[in-house]
């Protein structure tokens, strides 16, 4: 499937992994402009001051120092002001993907979380999903919270995707092709159902704790942008699914004939030693900024 550009979403936890992601795209995928959308806000809703001063400029300089042979265009989350009203980074970055058409030129894009490393050339005419082969996640609180969210937001009895009649997870694979028509129609459908602006409705649900990050009692909604997108896409203009297979040598590593790595870990959790073993040069000063960010935001450690 053809697309106009790559869109990488990143934040201070993925400073160095962003470089690895870009390098893997240049090595394995077709040449396209690279649009990098940077979240520069602290989780109190204000620009990053204490946790990582000047993160955006530090990241730009670090990427420039890699001398990548690619056209790189920079954006910040605040280019869509309504999203800046969301005070939690995890939700903010999900809203970015649901409103990607408001950041990017063209009509079709490959959106990629910055902790992805591609290990081979891939095609994107199918939706990669993780299949719950043994149905072990059907009663998982995150899964159930996702389904509550989808059912409410879409006002639909369809609240999941399946592969060969087995539960499938789209959010486990944080890259996919998206297009302007899909996202505009999705938001329009939600706004027609709820008679509210899409982003403002979500911000209100965050603030009133209708949407939470985790609820072991399975009484509250848990947001997943990719689950929402793929349920809606499958209802309206479906793409076929591709089952990907997993190893855990690098947090999550895809095996077989569709190989990529997804750390799902922040830079400090991956560690400086591992990052430098990937032939990245990291100055002590920059690593100290990353470490300071971790120490000032311990709730984000993972």
The structural domain count equals 1
The biggest beta sheet reads: 7 strands, mixed
Structural class: alpha/beta
* CATH level-3 fold name: Spore Coat Polysaccharide Biosynthesis Protein SpsA, Chain A
Could you walk me through the main structural features you see in this protein, from its secondary elements to its overall organization?
The protein is of the alpha/beta class. It has one domain: Spore Coat Polysaccharide Biosynthesis Protein SpsA, Chain A. Helix content is about 35%, strand content about 20%. It contains 10 helices and 12 strands. It has helices spanning about 15-30, 55-65, 90-100, 140-155, 180-195, 200-205, 225-235, 265-270, 270-275, 285-295; strands at about 5-10, 35-40, 70-75, 110-115, 115-120, 125-130, 160-165, 165-170, 175-180, 240-245, 250-255, 260. The strands form 2 sheets. Strands 5-12-11-10-6-8-7 form a 7-stranded mixed beta sheet. β11 and β12 (about 260) form a beta hairpin. α4 (about 140-155) packs across α7 (about 225-235). The protein is globular. About 40% of the residues are buried. The model has no long low-confidence stretch (mean pLDDT about 90).
